[in-house]
Amino acid sequence: MTLNATIAAVTERIITRSAPTRSAYLDRMRSAASKGPARAHLSCSGQAHAYAAAGEDQVTLATGNAGHLGIVTAYNDMLSAHQPFEDYPQKIKAAVREIGGTAQVAGGVPAMCDGITQGEAGMELSLFSRDAIAMSVGVALSHNVFDAAVYLGVCDKIVPGLIIAAQTFGHLPSVFIPAGPMTSGLSNDEKAMTRQKFAKGEVGRDELLKAEMAAYHGPGTCTFYGTANTNQMLMEFMGLHLPSSSFVNPGTDLREALTREGAKRALSLSALGNDYTPVCDVLDEKAFVNGIVGLMATGGSTNLLIHLIAMARAGGIILDWQDFAELSDVVPLLARVYPNGLADVNHFHAAGGLGFMIRELLGAGYLHPDTKTVAGGGLGEYLMEPFYEGGSLTWKEGTEKSLNEAILRPATEPFQETGGLARLTGNLGTGVMKVSAVAEENRTVEAPVRVFHDQDEAKAAFKAGELNEGDVVIVVRFQGPKANGMPELHSMTPFLSIMQGRGQKVALVTDGRMSGASGKVPSAIHVVPEALDGGPIAKLQDGDLVRVDATTGQLEVLTEGVMDRAPVTADLSSYQHGVGRELFAMFRANVTSADTGATVFGV
């Protein structure tokens, strides 16, 4: 199938735009590869330190030339998605010994749960944790003793941080090993209904807690299609997971077999063998376009509009929101997974999952087939599906048709002709909106604004009955990366949904973020310039008329004279201290804008 013209044109534009920085990056990676790991060149004392606790692998490390695998883990047992990683290092070490190799845990990285910190002060550290994770990997791999690496991480900021680091050590082959989603519990729709009833005061906290515990009930990733599961999709579309491995549940024989195979595969790609495949060659411009196509076709998390830009720049590739917008205009939406539908990721996987999607998108010319992957053989390898049979891992051709077209459709009969995300521009700046769950009739809102300086103010106004009548655009500003770390504002979703459900036209405009679970209410988010930079949203006053239109891509204030006003300022002192926020002052002072990745690493 011929590559879609827009896919080809956007890819070529990215390649041209990135040429100077990409070339410089690849030169650095080739230089690092030519030097190789310094293991053999360490002093005797250095080697003794490196191998002192290696147990049965100590002699192999000291006297042999076997491949040595570094394990970077985001394990902790507060995150359900990461709890299964507890015993992965031992399984990985045992697996690579079978092929004559060795492995060590190079280091651990922090991993926080946005679900725990939603609406809390800790959420203001969430975005910055991505860059802190990348720095932590830098420390872990600085010993320069490994021939390849595996990365154990799943959730929101963890995978992007690990990707930034993997590209920094791009001369090393890298395989990402997932933990898989928890089994299905209380449906996401029932959980959302209980949250709305609690916001209305119709049920008490005991009923709310009961529903939440029934939804989040065991080890594994949360089952809705938020940022964590969008990350897992990206790792397959971009060739860093083994095929169809993202959504295999924890604690199964197949999950363990895939973990063992991922470790062996990583070592097989090292420079010691004949299939040297460094991650810098896997994550090229085409791979990032494939990732964006997957984001659009699945209606994935808006957080990746920030993370993908930062991830790409770590490899010298320059993306911008216009690239995303043009790809969204042509890529069809093929999946309906909560919050864009009733199904969860287990249902999606059972219906054909990522293998079916890749098959459809490749066949329709929306994906580059010739990217390098950790599976070898290009993206076509990702049409295969793993099975655990007779005590061993086998691969078979995946399904050629959707097994449930209410969840997953072919490219010839999509849920909608365009992707799940839209770019909005106008005199209020530039923002983005997740439209895959927003009904057509709700994608345009023209209404007076109510302005708030944090989400608690907005929630208090709702509880006081101040937002009960009329159409309204809720503006929550001074929530950008420089102001307070750009927290997600997902705790506003219940009351915004209630307002929309009772017939009000309502939209949100903010320089903050919404969760990957953002859904039915039109939300223009990530607005740049942010209010702290004097962005136009800092000039709005209650009653100004604003138009938010995802169909035409407009983000406009219609009231005359607004642009002549001086931007307001805000007291941000409450964001400076507590739950570790004082430790991240350097990040707030040096972070780039949302449309350049909201990163402290510059551009």
From TrEMBL:
Pathway per the UniProt entry: Carbohydrate metabolism; Entner-Doudoroff pathway
GO cellular component, one term: cytosol
SUPFAM superfamilies, per database record: IlvD/EDD N-terminal domain-like (SSF143975), LeuD/IlvD-like (SSF52016)
Superkingdom of the source species: Bacteria
Protein name: Phosphogluconate dehydratase
Catalytic activity: 6-phospho-D-gluconate = 2-dehydro-3-deoxy-6-phospho-D-gluconate + H2O
UniProt GO MF annotations: 4 iron, 4 sulfur cluster binding; metal ion binding; phosphogluconate dehydratase activity
Location of the Dihydroxy-acid/6-phosphogluconate dehydratase N-terminal domain: 69-381
A Pfam cross-reference name: ILV_EDD_C
Cofactor(s) essential for the protein: [4Fe-4S] cluster
UniProt keyword Nucleus, yes or no: no
Gene3D superfamilies reported in the protein's UniProt record: IlvD/EDD C-terminal domain-like
